[in-house]
């Protein structure tokens, strides 16, 4: 599709911006082009730092697209307010745990229990520590998780890791949902350490979640990390909010998927992936 000249851009800079001559000097068309702003996307691979992967001159240059939702904190998409725990001091962490413990005591009282009886004396503290552990994904940067586990490799066939166990907390009822996730990608000169696929899924699952968002977050994270030709993620999970309360349908399984790149556009690639995860 031809691009409208009035809105054409070069590296994110308006190609026709400030073309009029100025009393202070020549027009912008006569001056050197300004250096385009670097877009860090979701926080992967910063422009400097020890976690920046080093590639040889033979590496194929990959143009990094603008992120749909940039996150300067490196926590991934979307990461609303999660930087509060990421940047907390030891004193702030202790204060948060103490406040959470008091809230749990209030909950025990509200459901009609006696938080001072023997079996519940330490429950507020235990649950506060457990909940902070189960949501520790708010304190982990994806760039630190991936670190330097990005490698040049002349491999252009599917890479698939399946049956990754996942446990998370439903953000609607704060009860668990558990299942398995399969992650696949088609490399574009770069591959990711296999364990990092499971680690990416683990980081996102350790936050309050809905399964649909979790599935998409994992796919976008892999895409941002190594810019493969395509990414596919399928997750199957059982939700306690469906089995323990409400509709109470034990055994019901929720399946979600996210297809990016060639997995979305090429039916044969998508069918190969779906066939492999069913074996």
Automatic annotation (TrEMBL):
Keyword match Nucleotide-binding: yes
SUPFAM superfamilies the UniProt entry points to: Tetrahydrobiopterin biosynthesis enzymes-like (SSF55620)
Family from the record: Belongs to the GTP cyclohydrolase I family.
Molecular function via GO: GTP binding; GTP cyclohydrolase I activity; zinc ion binding
EC identifiers of the protein: 3.5.4.16
Protein name from the UniProt record: GTP cyclohydrolase 1
Record keywords, A-Z: Folate biosynthesis, GTP-binding, Hydrolase, Nucleotide-binding
Entries under Pfam families matching the protein: GTP_cyclohydroI (PF01227)
Domain GTP cyclohydrolase I per the UniProt entry, residue ranges: 102-277
Residue spans of biased composition, Polar residues class: 1-11
